[in-house]
DNA sequence: CCTCTCTACTTGTCTGAGGAGTCGTGCTAC
DNA sequence: GTAGCACGACTCCTCAGACAAGTAGAGAGG
């Protein structure tokens, strides 16, 4: 009979708040009433209101700033980023990757921790060890490049790189399969130099290495 | 540079949990340790752990069932793109913008059509004309920068730039309002030089101008 | 072997307290 | 008069403790 009760109060409160936000009760960027006001208004305790707010914060609808209040950061959730990538030209994807990765390499040179450097070198060795199977080699290569982007300690750049990965993987496997040859010493040397520039904290040099390496790939794929 | 402390404990706890989940510490569908176990393990109170769990529940990673426990419902979160932007540090956003825009400027120098160039110069004039109202000036500035990215004829870079726009706009308006001063001649000169490099088809020069201009902004906001 | 019950454990909710950050107000100094 | 500063009200953040509500497994009884 009482199956309405099944949902926890915090979930119900979150749903209720979301409805009121969508209804336009508070403008985008506007401040919500305080927790102490909202709690009796919704008929629940303060901690329950807090959990509801947290839940919506996790979805990106709300953001709370200590001392200031809780603010509306979005009215609804958005569009399909993957769709853009899928329909885009491969050359465009690589150009975007060059932009991301060269900048990340320069930042990584300045911010890398000893731990980052260890991860980069481990990925480099792993990359050298995987020269037989094409897919394994591509995956190892991706892990190496990702370790560099991660060393830049910039979540946006990391997220972008991860977004490009699936699309790139497919293209690279095809390219290497066509060329029949991969993972030669010259290629590996370029990667070693890139790692070395980052180890030396040479930002400009790292960006240059990254740019020339990816530029060659772009030329090969175009 | 020690701004690490600014994130609330609940956010830090959520991030920590997400890392451990991604690392595979708990399988998909598996039960996490109880809140009373997790709390001392993370060094926070039980309510804080609950808020962290709620946050991840809002993102679809966890689901809790009263009496049973908390379960992993997803390993890979297709992280909402603008949710990342909203959460991210402003410095990170600018760094990503530098990466996008410098590369776009270089490409634009090589690919601009006469029509692109006309649009860029029109946006530049418009930018110079809007020096009174802060929001109008920011919008005009954004249109100028966008005209350059558009001239690169790369849909990915354009899409990324557009994604950054809302977050940047808010921050720039705040900054200019605080600084009290904006749109001076030195600033306008930098923009004129950028347009000129693109007109001359000087890719490296355009990238350099773009980078130095945005680098100054990063320094001002940091 | 099956079923029922009971118990230990887990999440849900509330309350009260104090800490920390933000923002506007009003005072002070120039 | 105006700029700078101190203060106080307000807000979110965190913790601790208590009890309610629900679940699942162990054990007793059939």
Automatic annotation (TrEMBL), chains A, B:
Region (Disordered) location? 200-222
PROSITE patterns annotated for this entry?
Answer: HTH_GNTR (PS50949)
What InterPro entries has UniProt attached to this entry?
A: GntR_C (IPR011711), TF_FadR/GntR_C (IPR008920), Tscrpt_reg_HTH_GntR (IPR000524), WH-like_DNA-bd_sf (IPR036388), WH_DNA-bd_sf (IPR036390)
Question: Gene3D superfamilies, from UniProt?
Answer: GntR ligand-binding domain-like, Winged helix-like DNA-binding domain superfamily/Winged helix DNA-binding domain
Stretches of Basic and acidic residues bias are at 200-212
Query: Where's the HTH gntR-type domain?
Result: 7-75
One Pfam family here: FCD
Q: Which UniProt keywords apply?
A: DNA-binding, Transcription, Transcription regulation
Q: What is this protein called?
A: FCD domain-containing protein
């Amino acid at each position: 009979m009482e199956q309405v009760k099944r949902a926890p109060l915090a979930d119900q409160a979150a749903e209720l708040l979301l409805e009121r936000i969508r209804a336009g009760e508070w403008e985008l960027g506007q401040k919500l009433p305080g927790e102490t006001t909202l709690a009796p208004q919704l008929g629940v305790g303060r901690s329950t209101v807090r959990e509801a707010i947290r839940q919506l914060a996790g979805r990106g609808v709300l953001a709370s700033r200590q001392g200031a209040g809780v603010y509306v950061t979005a009215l609804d959730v958005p569009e399909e980023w993957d769709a853009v990538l899928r329909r885009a030209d491969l050359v465009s994807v690589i150009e975007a990757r060059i932009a991301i990765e060269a900048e990340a390499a320069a930042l990584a040179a300045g911010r890398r921790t000893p731990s980052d450097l260890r991860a980069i070198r481990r990925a480099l060795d792993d990359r050298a060890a995987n020269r037989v199977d094409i897919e394994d080699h591509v995956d190892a290569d991706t892990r190496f490049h990702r370790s560099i982007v991660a060393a830049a300690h910039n979540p946006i750049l990391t997220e972008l790189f991860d977004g490009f990965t699936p699309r790139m993987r497919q293209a690279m496997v095809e390219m290497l399969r066509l060329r029949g040859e991969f993972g030669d010493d010259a290629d590996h040397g370029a990667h070693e130099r890139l790692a070395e520039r980052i180890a030396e904290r040479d930002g400009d040099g790292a960006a240059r290495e990254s740019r020339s390496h990816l530029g060659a790939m772009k030329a090969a794929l175009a």
